[in-house]
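Good morning,

Both structures are done.
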Amino acid sequence: MDLPTSSGAVAWRHEGSGRLGLETTYFLRQDDGWLFNGTTEATEDGRDWSVGYQLIVDSAWRTRRARVMSDDLSILLEGDGGGHWVVDGGPAPALDGCLDVDLEASALTNAFPVHRLGLAVGASADAPAVYVRVAGLAVARLAQRYTRIEDDELGERYDYVAPEFDVHTVVAYDRTGFVRTYPDIAVRV
């Protein structure tokens, strides 16, 4: 599974969970990976929010750099590719072992572990992530597990579990590895 060209764009409509909005990202192939520039905006529980991001993943789909912006806030996450992180210039040992950044406001970031893991049908793996919340751009460790289940005619499907949020759902991806449907979160447009 790989992105179809050296550059392009993809978008999702937020749905469910009291959220209505849109995420759009543009991607560009680089010498050693991919650059993603995107924005996700929504109204949720009567509150409007907007998050901008620039994400860099290496050729093994490990997040190496993430700049996330919301309102007057900005945060910079830098990973060494081996599971060690620096947040706004300071070491973050609580995030050790995470290879991915997962943005609360994004369907895009669920593509990174799927590409990186390359699981066969029936295989599963833990994929803890550096989780960035919309509110205040708070950063925490998020336990998550992906199990590849039977593909459908449009692409791969994964049983996804994030115990902290009591999430257990099936996320469907297209043949390029982008999320098609993430129930109660987002749908590809």
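Second structure follows.
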Amino acid sequence: MINLKQLTVFKAINEAGSLKLAGERLGMTPAAVSVNLKMLEEHLGCALIERGRGRRAVAQRVTLTEQGRWLLEKSDTVFSHTQSIENYFKTQQQSDKTLKIGASQTVGNYWLPPYLSELKNGYPGSSVSVYIGNTDDVLSRLERFEDHFAVIEGQSDRKVLESYAFKEDSMTLVAPPEFELGKDLSKYTWLIREPGSATRKMTQYFWQEMGISPSTIIELNTNEAIIHAVAAGAGIAYVPTISTPFMLEAGLLQSYPTFASHTRQLYWVVHKDMQDTPAIKHARRVFFKT
């Protein structure tokens, strides 16, 4: 069986660039690094790095062999799983102290806040920590057990996660004030979220439904930045309706009716391996009143 320490040494050699620098990074002598590498190679029956000759070889820049490059790629998966295991137990142990929540931007900024007080009250003496990012980032954190659960726009298709609809959201087409929107929406500059964002996906669905092929796109990573850029005259956008009322009332934006679908589901998402924990059971009661 592959020794995890030896795999760590091998990975450090590649990242540091030499046996000597890997030793300094790991707090090991170059000789100890070399021994661990040799033992791994003997176990696998192949050379993992191209070796120089002489004493200076430990300080020379290393080059991975074809087998070494293959092992490096696979080792990333091994270390990812190892980190996930550590995160799982760490999150379990912290659940009576800190309830950790992941949230996509629209849900985290607008829909989640009313739930926070009740979530906190279920854990007297504990704190609540919320991480807000785009949907893909939030789901990746949940897969790695960095959070107890997540709330997002759209349903997750990741096999280790379970999704439950808890609320409906809607989208709105917005433009700068006093802007006259023509029939050809492709000719305007469109403001859109970054890859991995559920709002970006909804915008792309909207384009498809309406036959829109934008000639110019400006990409921003928050809904708030997009709304303010629209208000400043930078272009038009398709944004969550809940993010628009104050700007519309202030006359800084105007909205337009369309013939496309405007609604989407918001989902409460949990890792399958965390379903029966006290933290998840409490959160489920809060979101679904069960």
